[in-house]
Amino acid sequence: MKYKHNYQIGLEDVDIKGNATNRALMTMMEDIGGLHSDSVGYGLDSVEQTGQAWVVLDWKIEIVRRPHYRDNITAYTWSRNHNIACAYRDFELFDAQGEKLARATSRWVLIDIVKRRPLRLTQELIEKYQGEPQSQAFEEELENMSYPKDFFDTENAVKQRYTVLRRDIDSNMHMHNLAYLDAAGELLPQQIYEEGEKNHIRISYKKEILYGEEITGVYIQHEDRHAVGLTDTNKGVRAIVELW
Predict the structure, then answer these.
(1) Which of 65, 170, 192, 231 is deepest in the core (most CB within 10 A)?
(2) Whole-angstrom distance, CA of residue 73 vs CA of residue 208
(3) Contact (CB, 8 A) for 104 and 60
(4) Which helix (H) or strand (E) holds 78?
């Protein structure tokens, strides 16, 4: 089953040229995913009852055409595939004329919010979502995202330290997944930033980041991609963001 919801691009959703930002489009995707889960009893409204919450591990997003201020958007999401450890969710955004604006795929785990551990996905749970495994936003599967261990530990990289603030924390009490995109944007060289939003986004969340932690963002241009690693005090990579 594909779940549908309508949105409109607001003032807070656009850049100085009136174009929708990547953050705004990702917010729509995250929101409709949450609404879909709410509709089957595994969304934010049910966390207190179930003791369980969905946590995103990976995003892959392509902006086909960027909408503008006051444009009406129709968003679709659906559960696409799963195994016992994780579930895949896809998204598509369309304008009022039915033209595709963006597509995305993502990978999620269900966690026990007290033990902070992933849970095994049961057939009963998966069936509630009425998945559509034959419908894919991308032709290829979501690939693993990795770099050599010392890739972000180079003296030539652009680095910036950041202490995680209250405003960065989500309902699961860790750094909100959109805050990673914000951090990556702050590390882009000014010339790259002024070129405007990138139409391709790839994010891999390796380990949760909590309130008060000190994180170092490391920027490196890798081939045609702008790569940002968010590393901890032990130089462990907690997340990777690619923009191109």
Answers:
(1) 231
(2) 31
(3) yes
(4) strand 72-82
The C-alpha atoms of residue 174 and residue 100 are separated, in whole angstroms, by: 32
- Looking at residue 166, the DSSP 8-state letter turns out to be G
CA count, 13 A, side-chain hemisphere, 14: 14
Both tokens assigned to 211: 């309130």
Residue with tokens 């991609």: 225
59: amino acid identity, one letter: W
Measured between alpha carbons, how far is 38 from 212 in angstroms, rounded to an integer? 30
Q: What are the backbone dihedrals phi and psi of residue 204, each rounded to the nearest 5 degrees, phi first?
A: -125, 120
Q: Write b or e for each residue in 193-220: b if 16 or more Cβ atoms lie within 10 A of its Cβ, otherwise e.
A: eeeebbeebbbbbbeebeeebebbbbbb
* pLDDT tens track for 34-84: 999 999 999 998 998 999 999 999 999 999 999 999 999 999 999 999 999
SS3 string, 189-225, reads: CHHHHHCCCCCEEEEEECCCCCCCCEEEEEEEEECCE
How far, in Å, CA of 64 to CA of 61, rounded?
A: 10
**Does the global pTM surpass 0.90?**
yes
Q: Which of helix, strand or coil describes residue 35? A: helix
